[in-house]
Amino acid sequence: MSLQDFNRYAGQAIRMVKEEKPKEILIVHHDDADGLCSAAIIKRALERENLNTTTFCLEKIYTEVVADLHSKDGRIIFYVDIGSSHADLISEYNEGRNSTIILDHHDPKPSKDPRVLDLNLENFGFKGETDFSGATCCYLFARTLNEANSDLAYLALVGSREIPEGYTSINKAILEEAIKNGRINEKGKSFEISRFKVSVEDLFSKLQILGAAGYYEGGPDLGIEICLNGLTKNAEEKVAFLEDRRKEANRRLLGRLYREGLKETDHIQWFDAGNMYAGMGTKVIGQFCSFLLYQTRLIKPDKYILGFVNVPPEIPKWGKLKESFVKASLRMPKQMQALIAKGKLPGAVNLLDKASEGFGIADGHQYAASVIVPVNRKNELIENAEKVAQTSV
Description:
This protein is of the alpha/beta class.
């Protein structure tokens, strides 16, 4: 499989969209920088085709939300930077009702519904951990839709800042093309978006804050706006306010962990933040777990890091969840990543998927993943995760 195959399948999806001529297209997207860039790309590309769009930011896939979104007939739904890990669930609730297109880079599961098309580039021979982001996948789709969408290349690069290896493979080609066309300028060791005179790194950082810490305060919509039209004074002030609030919560949690330490099993070190991030999106717990990787005096270098946070019941633009949940984010120290790459340890998403089988919804990558589980099954998740790790070792 190759990019040519992706372009061919993308062309089929595009023909489907144009033939149906929907009154409105729903864009479901993730809340991190990659998710906001992905939503911005697809929103702008579809609106250039005179199609109306509505964006809906979803931190995680919830069964009752998916069931509701797919309960009506005749819609076109895009899942961007989210959805691949749950293509089977989406298929189950779609039941052939709606044309659904997934553009993602998380580890995919097979779709059972022919009207649910997963164009994740992992299905075409690439790796979502290193070769491309959700925004990359969206950009390639948008460019197949209309070559004029090449001006959105900067958003693929902003979204891909989450990849530790930097711009390689597909992203390297997009970067080189963007520099050649003058859409990106090299500034020392960084890159500047020519149109907005802001660095790729700076926009990425601000989007990470808006989408996660500002999830319940219109942050995702503001993030999409600045993706397409640049930073404003209002956006800068909002980012500063949200970042101060997140830093304060991080400081309090880090202080507690240095006093109390993390709880441990043989292969897992874990903590529970409870309601310490109240008012913020649950994405912040994953960001904190990533931060812990650098706290070498606090963590063990040979154990998975698992962090819990309570999930607020309200989902913006949708309603209230019926059940109480917690989110668990999993990260691993650097030396464990090498063992995962060699197949000697289970990857993050594999571990959580098995540990939550039958009661959780996990997604992510081999080095970073998360899962939503009912609050009363938190201890069961820890016990199962330890068993999975023991069996694998």
